[in-house]
Amino acid sequence: MQTKRITFNNRWLPYLLVAPQLAITLVFFIWPASQALYQSVLREDAFGLSSEFVWFENFETLFDDPLYLSSFKVTLVFSAGTTLLSMGAALLLAVMADRVIRGSTFYKTFLIWPYAVAPAVAGVLWWFMFNPTIGILAYTMRQLGYDWNHTLNANDALLLIIIAAAWKQVSYNFLFFLAGLQAIPRSLIEAAAIDGAGPQKRFWTIVFPLLSPTAFFLMVVNIVYSFFETFAIVHATTAGGPGQATSILVYKVWRDGFVSLDLGGSAAQSVILMLIVISLTVVQFRFIERRVEY
């Protein structure tokens, strides 16, 4: 069997085709990353008018700061909770929507809509529902005997941002899980049903293993999402409080850089955050992917 190769007669055409993507990568990733690396070894005044080269003093100061070390723990709990909750809810909804029922297209459309909501809007929405004074969910929980108050209770505040961030990501996960379910041959499931396997056994022995590539991909995406793309949700719901109990790493980068005007320390935090996400992604593809069957 011969494979057809595509050749370009013009030697500059391939470079011209990839030039827009290269330009976007250079302007929005390479350049900001290099600026952060450079600023992380500088001590600058609040107005950026003078700077001093201090090597790794900004990093040493960070790891001596108990608030920064606390943000590590908060971020890990937040990332794990957001990933598990969003993927678990999306998988459950996808399995239910994959059934042949009347009006299934209507349900699928409404399940996808929340992804179009801006992160700040999602945060404000959940802030209103859990507001200790006017929130309907806070009122319901008080009727059930639990005095919800995320403005005073750190655990309530952390749970609130986990719920808000997971709700925002459920629709994205739902799309991929549903596509993965629809790609599974029905003949395999029907054969297992004929052999006497129940619904739960069919799911865990046939469906779920075949969904492992999709689940692995979504796990990587959700972890990166929780580390980088949840600033607006935290800012709109808890603003890092109470007492910076919900100040995740990406939020602390903004607070120290734009509120405290510690430009060098903020740049050092962004470098560490970037290295953490890169390391997590490498570990996932290096070790966890081996357990995935394609």
From TrEMBL:
CDD domains: TM_PBP2
Any one Gene Ontology cellular component term annotated for this protein: plasma membrane
Source superkingdom: Bacteria
GO BP: transmembrane transport
Compartments where found: Cell inner membrane; Cell membrane
Signal peptide span: none
Keyword terms: Cell inner membrane, Cell membrane, Membrane, Transmembrane, Transmembrane helix, Transport
Residue spans crossing the bilayer: 12-31, 76-97, 109-129, 157-181, 202-228, 267-288
Pfam families, per the entry: BPD_transp_1
Residue stretches making up the ABC transmembrane type-1 domain: 72-284
Keyword NAD among UniProt keywords: no
Record's bilayer topology term: Multi-pass membrane protein
Complex and partners: The complex is composed of two ATP-binding proteins (UgpC), two transmembrane proteins (UgpA and UgpE) and a solute-binding protein (UgpB).
PANTHER family named among the record's database cross-references: BLL4140 PROTEIN, SN-GLYCEROL-3-PHOSPHATE TRANSPORT SYSTEM PERMEASE PROTEIN UGPA
NCBIfam families tied to this protein: PRK10561.1 (NF007852)
General function of this protein: Part of the ABC transporter complex UgpBAEC involved in sn-glycerol-3-phosphate (G3P) import. Probably responsible for the translocation of the substrate across the membrane.
Family of this protein: Belongs to the binding-protein-dependent transport system permease family.
UniProt name for this protein: sn-glycerol-3-phosphate transport system permease protein UgpA
Species for this entry: Stappia sediminis
Gene of this entry: ugpA
